[in-house]
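TL;DR need structure tokens for one chain.
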Amino acid sequence: MKIAIISDQHFGFKKGSKIYHDFFLKFYEEVFFPVIDKLGITTIVDMGDTFDSRKGIDFGALAWAKDNYYDPLAQRNITIHTIVGNHTAYYKNTNEVNAVDLLLREYDNVKIYAEAEEVKLGNLNTLFIPWINSDNSQSTYKTIKQSDCRIAMGHLELNGFRAHRGHIMEDGHDAKIYEKFDKVFSGHYHTRSDDGRIFYLGNPYQMFWSDVNDKRGFVIFDTETLEHKYLNNPNELYKIVRYNNTPRQTFKYQDYAGKIVKLIVEQRDSHKEYEKFVDGFDKVDLVDLNIVDQTVNIADAELNVDEFEDTLSILDKYVDELEFSLSKSTLKSILRETYQEACNVT
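>> reply
TL;DR here they are.
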């Protein structure tokens, strides 16, 4: 039996921003639904953070999620096993009150897992592991220890894996406890990484500048062979353009319509030609254009392009340069969570 695994969909991102949800919709309409229809998928595992904010959701975003995702799945009679993640748990110390349970009770095909539980997928017993916190950690680790499942799926925060580009988690839970499983699939980190046994599958689409050039999508998993395959989302929202006296006459501006573009100026011999090149973006409907001019020296210091590619990388580098006795990885995690919450402030 083949099932689909998806994680970290973050419905309601940026308070239901139309720009982002239109971008999300391209994935569902052009990639996700066509694949599950073609393969005859009847079961989906959602590994957490289905909704973006633990504190609430914009009504428009909730209607969008139901109209464009949950209703189409209900019409297809597809069962959705939904694991509670940290963004969908209202309190940080318990999963008891959570968004997916409260918002999706009308759907008989949606099954919610707030505690660790063994579930049969086809003929395969699978251990579902929701977000681990102070309230459920003892019972969760007891369930993990007693389980004889070959496969585990959850929303885990493990050390040694890539949380986002340039940041390997040094804190978090020890991965050794999962050595008993043949494979472990997890959500939570938005970028893909694995150690051959534990697989962070990443989220379906770009949401931050730190996602640029990273592969996104979902997974098809065979419960008989235990093989899994990534299905990539070809759509991109963030694009980087490097200007090196680039001739505007041959530049394909139309490829950037509907994108958030960062223009990095590396060489500019003619200011007039450069201005005309930039003006060319006015002919297409960009979401936003940010310009990083590397030809200008600031305090005689050379600029590093990577420092400008995303806010999270800048924050990580700042923390790395600090001198104090506290855990830098913990501070990075706090800053990452704060930044993601700030993205929802309008």
